[in-house]
Design goal:
The structure is a single chain. The protein has about 270 residues and is an alpha+beta fold. About 35% of the residues lie in helices and about 30% in strands. A hairpin with a 5-residue loop joins strand 3 and strand 4.
Amino acid sequence: MSINHLIPPRTLGLSTVSFVVIALLSVGCGPSAGMSLSSMDKVIEMTKGPCYGRCPVFTLTIYEKGIVSYKGERYTDRLGTYVKKLEKDEMERLLREFKNANLWQYKDAYRGRIPDMQSVSITFYDGSRKKTVTGKEIRPNSVKWLESLLDQVAQSNTGWIQKEAPDDNVPDYLIPNELVVELAEGIDPEEWAKSYVQADMLVEKRLNDTEYWIFSFDDGLVTPEVMIEQVRMDKDVISAEFNKQLYNKLNKEEGEGAKKGSTVKQEAVKQQY
């Protein structure tokens, strides 16, 4: 660095400090909790839905310039919306991996064989076009690899700033007066429900061919929060959570499929005679 002898030393020092401060302000150290995400262009997004167990339910969105938002809904340490900024090399790597994967070569949706697996949706925005691939355990390996990279971002514990507190309202996909309970081996669901007679607990149905049972109770007698905590502490219970609209839909689809198969089989028997 050359020194201009026409500038007094003190003035030179102040000028240098001012330049550094301005440079830092222009670069920025990270996102602000008050920033407007709606005004930014999305680049990558991953949504993980509910499962029969305690899968983390969240949406991870990566915007231009490496801004990331994490919206946690259930079973995650970060509930609500959080934001952070990726390092330049992190952002460049993600973009490179997504372009190399060429999601456009794959189907939009892959149907899984295991009903209780978590559904994962990954979207890549490339200019004016976008591509979404959704599925459970059956998806291309390159798509699963992209999921693992995004999971690393989501699970990072540094740099997050809370932007919005979690919504206190019960999500519309939950059924607060019904529980999905996985009972220990050998436990009869009818007998088990009788131990919660004070809440008018009843067996509703079994979830397909799994070991999960749906129980209903009177939330006017016991609040949903108290009920689920009591059930989770039960020695005969492996896991418990509120029922979801998704589970009922899956159960209905399985039932309709079985009914349709039975009808076809009956028609085939009739034709033999």
